[in-house]
Amino acid sequence: MTIGRVTTSQIWSSSTANIQASKARLSQLTAQSSSGLLVAKPSDDPVAAASILKVLNQQSANAQYTTNIADGLTWLSTADSTMTSSENLVRQAKDLAIQAGNSGTATPASRNAIATQLEGIRDDLLSAANTKVNGRSIFAGTSDAAAAFTAAGVFAGSTTTTSTTNGTTTTSTVTGSVQRRIGSEPTDLVTVSADGSAAFGAGTTASPSVFQQIQGVIDALRSPGYDTDTPDPVTGRTPKEAVTAGIDLLNTALTNLSAQHAVLGANYARMTSAKTQNATTATALETQRSGLQDADTTKTLLDLKTQELAYQTALQVTAQVIQPTLMSFLS
């Protein structure tokens, strides 16, 4: 049996390799201790780095959803409070109209006083309907209109689209909804705007706005023919009949406002729920990322001290082995 002779070159190569490996591990632990990260770059651990990148992308998307939710809640909370105040204003207008209708002996001065109050309510209601968030009207949908309603109470938030099919051109008017994405699924979209025409009326013949309805009561109360029951030449109604009709219209307007308010409430509840879920997801993703990327400070420091000792020991052992070998070679 032949036993191979270990040469000085082999000893040197083996010792150098051990020292380099120990030094590399020491450098790695030093970097981990300094940065607090197990994986600071892909080459540290390619498999873990790929998993970390995936989690970081998910965190980035979730952060965007957080921003969307916060913005959406601002829109919805503003719309909610505006709808509440609008409903209160319409109730006040209806009560004043009822008061005027029940006052059979009311004087022109008292009717004018009620009309003046109704003007104030109409103006306040119009201001509410033109409420904005970040410069955009919450009741004008995706329209670029400066205000959802004109001073005449006509809805200005619609967008007219034209399409041609088989030579037939169709024009339609729509109100786009402002939406915010709260998740990655196709259905994770929440409408944060309110349909102004559905809430307050479009201001057209087919759909008079609540502002026009209030104005109709104002005009009737100030009509010179109120006491003589002179019919209006256009509508055929007497001023008193116009006030009664106005009360019915305001009841309908209040119903429409309440219905749209309920839609807003449902969207607000969904957005609030999404906020809670989003926070839970953010915590879970951070825990996942930390488990993949963050170093255990206590363990890293302990490993670092152990590796420093191992490195120094490797240097000392190598020095002790190499020195006699060189002396033997020289002699």
TrEMBL record:
GO terms for biological process: bacterial-type flagellum-dependent cell motility. One of its GO terms (cellular component) is bacterial-type flagellum hook. Residues 9-143 form the Flagellin N-terminal domain. The keyword Membrane does not apply. It is found in: Bacterial flagellum. GO terms for molecular function: structural molecule activity. InterPro entries: Flagell_FlgL, Flagellin, Flagellin_C, Flagellin_N. Residues 247-329 form the Flagellin C-terminal domain. It comes from the Bacteria. Keywords: Bacterial flagellum, Cell projection, Cilium, Flagellum. Transmembrane segments: none annotated. Its main location: other. Belongs to the bacterial flagellin family. This is Flagellar hook-associated protein 3 FlgL.
